[in-house]
Amino acid sequence: MSNDGKVRVRGLSIFRPIIYGNTATLLTTEDRKGGNIPPDHTHKWTVAVRSAASAPDSDIVGGADDLSYFIKRVTFKLHDTYTNATRNIDKPPFEVSETGWGEFEIQIRILFITEAGEKPMVLYHHLKLHPWTVTGEPEIPPPEVALKMGPVHSWQYDEVVFNDPFQNFLNILTAHPPTPLPTVKKRPVPFHLANPGSLEASRGGIPEFTRLMEKEEAARLEDAKKKVAAEQERWRNILIEKEKELEQLRRRVNNS
Amino acid sequence: MAASIADVRSALSIPGHVTPNRLQQVKKQPSQSVKKPEGISRELYSLIGPSAPSLAAQLAKPRLKQKPNLGGGGKVKWEWRNFKNGARSDSLELGHWVKASVDPDSEYPFAKYNVQPTNYIWSPDEYARHLEDPEWTQEETEYLFNLVQEYDMRWFVIFDRYEYPRGEKEAGRAIEDLKERYFSVCRKLIRNRTWADENLKTHLQNLMQYDKDREQMRKRYLTSLDNRTPDQLQEEEALFIEIKRLEQNERKFKREREELLRIIAGIEAGLPDIADEDASVSLSLDPKRRKKGMDFEIPATPILTAPVMKKPQSYKNAAHDAQHCIIRNEPSGTTPATKAAHTPSYMRSYKLPVPKAAIAPRVTQILAELGIQHNRLVMPTKDNCALLESLLETTTALVETRKVVDKADYEIKVLKSQLEVRENEDEGDGTASVGEIDDSDVFETQKNGRGESIGSTRSTRNRKLCRRSMSTSSVDTSVTLPVRAVKRQKRA
Questions:
Q1: Mind telling me which CDD domains this protein's record contains (chain A) (predicted)?
Q2: More confidently predicted of A242 and B4
């Protein structure tokens, strides 16, 4: 490695949008025929780390770009009851497919390429098998209903931020610009608990992350801020009233 | 001239030049026969002769352009009508002339110009935190704000009516003092309050700018400008002329020198530089030149952002940055470029702010009511994270305010029960003078319009007796008061 590659570019941060999460479907009788699936397993699922944008006509959420240009390895730590609970994935796609019957927390450890000079990053994802509900309370519908509702998607968007990257790492990153998120909605919205209102919009097919989601969330935040500010104004007026009253009472107490 | 030459010729009896004279005479005769035009007196015409026509045309009555018809034809009907000014709080009715075509039910068109300036009020808590000033007491500040409100920010009127009793040795307030206090209080209130719209906040803050020193200096200048004696005026004039003269000399000298150089040394190129250099040094009133002179100094300051310049040119593009998800921060000159100072890579959502532990449950609850989760976002982009952060700040402020309200509530409760206990004691002793209680009743009614709360129950002896027996429950009645106050607030 040449020496000038080890120079940090100051005052600059560069990020890469990624998504992590899982997709789960109910096992059908045909699925069971082929392999040696334990009889108590009800779902097959895939947990993955992918780029945020979806490739056109793909049947998965996200994954338009190959992330191996900055990710060296992704380690998924499954529930201890699985054989080889720690799965190292060194090649894209960074994902693990399994069958199971229960939801649990998966630890995802992302190791960056050596040029990055960064420590590994650890994320947590709650494996989601059962359909989303408005309340967020886990509710397990009977298999027939669940089957009708189709695969369950649970994905979190996030951005990996690199501060003051090394020059050669920056070069690598800029050589692979991420596919921008689409600005129009063509597919369902990925459901997220922070936005329960999107439940209806998340139905009917493979969801896709879009710019619109960011804008929609910004609007919700702005709206909430306005309401809070109005409330604050109201309470301050109440406070002023109260303090006036208090002042009068004090005067009366002192006078009497 | 011609005539005199002719005279000389005739005197010297030089022949051959008589013909012009005769020609003139021949010409004159037909001109006299031309008829005198109208609008000019005969005597005048005989004086000015045939050159008159152009004049006569001007003397004739001027033909004016036709008056434009603004009314659209026909007469406009006006009516005397009574009207009410919507901006008035009293129901005074005045009359005015209006076109009959105007709808009689329409609102008085000038009512909308009666704009009241926003009245800024503060809680004592806010005053203690932000508005303390050794020069001003809270009472005086309130007095000032009331005056400002009363006289619609007409500062000279406010200054005139300002009669706050102050200590003997303290000097009266100047109009600048009043203005400075008012604007600084407004600025502080605006700065420390939460605003839904940041733009509005900065706009208001800019409106409230006031620089007392500058204002005083401006007035001093104006006064001194006004107080100049005629002698001084003359001197100024003379000096101005002198400057102009000097400048002119300078220019002339420069031009001459330039010419001289061109002639002697044959310097063509490089000469303007010499002239320019001199220009910036020479006495000059031209502001443009002065600015130019300042420009020369700027590059002298060391460039601190040198590392930015080192970066390849290709990065200098916003579109490029957006495409590659690059965010540029101001490189901080203070942090040393050591390994320890480096911020490791992180997930954007992991840097979301956390509310203070003590109030976290209430913040979470308020946000949950608004459908926002304080610890997670669907799309934790940079903008959204910043938005969530400011939302959390606002919510924290709200929770703090409500805490203070609760505290005030509690104190009111305590004071009320104290008062009641004391009154009951007084009544038990039989020494309480009825007049005194009545006075306090009136006081309460006036101030709050809430006479029914405590006062009315006290009016008769019977009730007094009842009251004593339920003194323990009296605390409850006082608790209902704040609720009522809240309701009134809502309606307002």
A1: YEATS_Yaf9_like
A2: A242
Per-window interface: A 153-192 vs B, CB < 8 A: 156-164, 173-174, 177-178, 180, 192
DSSP letters along B268-292, please?
-TTHHHHHHHHHHHS----HHHHHH
Count of CB atoms situated within 10 Å of the CB of B382: 15
Instruction: Tell me the C-alpha distance between A27 and A25, whole Å.
Output: 6
Report yes or no on whether pTM surpasses 0.90: no
Written as one string, the DSSP assignment of B214-229 is HHHHHHHHHHHHHT--
Type of residue numbered A253: V
Sequence-separated (6 or more) residues with CB below 8 Å from residue A21 = A47, A48, A61, A125, A128, A153, A154, A155, A156
Q: What is the mean pLDDT of residues A124-140?
A: 79
Residue B450 Cα, gap to closest chain A Cα (Å): 11
To the nearest whole angstrom, how far is the Cα of B220 from the nearest Cα of chain A? Answer: 41
**Selection from A102, A51, A112, A111 nearest residue A80 by Cα:** A102
Tell me which chain B residues have a C-beta less than 8 angstroms from the C-beta of A245: 412, 448, 481, 485
> What does the alpha-carbon distance between residue B306 and residue B303 come to, in Å, rounded to a whole number?
6
CA distance B415 to B426: 16
> Is the CB of B445 inside 8 Å of chain A's CB atoms?
no
CB A141 within 8 A of CB A150: no
| Chain B: residue whose CA lies nearest to A242 | B408
Nearest to B342 among A161, A164, A232 (CB): A164
**Nearest-angstrom CA–CA distance, A246 and A7:** 64
Record: contact A194-B373, CB cut-off 8 A: yes
- Residue B437 pLDDT level (bands cut at 50, 70, 90): very low
Distance CA B210, CA A20 (A): 54
Peptide bond into A92 cis (omega under 30): no
Token pair for B105: 């039910």
Residue type (1 letter), A147: L
Lowest mean pLDDT among A13-27, A88-102, B21-35, B144-158: B21-35
Alpha-carbon gap: A235 to the closest alpha carbon of chain B (Å)? 7
B124 and A247 within 8 Å at the Cβ level: the answer is yes
Contact A124/B at CB under 8 A: no
**Contact indicator for B471, B420 with CB cutoff of 8 Å:** yes
Report all structural domains of chain A as residue ranges with CATH numbers, in order of start: 4-209 (2.60.40.1970)
**What span, in angstroms and rounded, lies between the C-alpha atoms of B395 and B363?**
6
What is the CB-side half-sphere exposure of residue B463 using CA atoms within 13 A? 7
B337 to chain A, any CB pair closer than 8 A? The answer is yes
Phi, psi (rounded to 5 degrees) for A161:
-105, 130
Q: Do B330 and A11 touch (CB under 8 A)?
A: yes
Q: How far is B188 from chain A (nearest CA, A)?
A: 15
Using CB atoms and an 8 Å cut-off, which of residues 59-98 of chain A contact chain B? Answer: none
Scanning every residue of chain B, which has its alpha carbon at the shortest distance from the alpha carbon of A181? B323
Distance of CA B416 to the CA centre of its chain: 46
* Tens-digit pLDDT profile for residues B54-112: 555 555 666 777 777 666 666 788 889 888 888 888 888 888 898 888 887 788 888 88
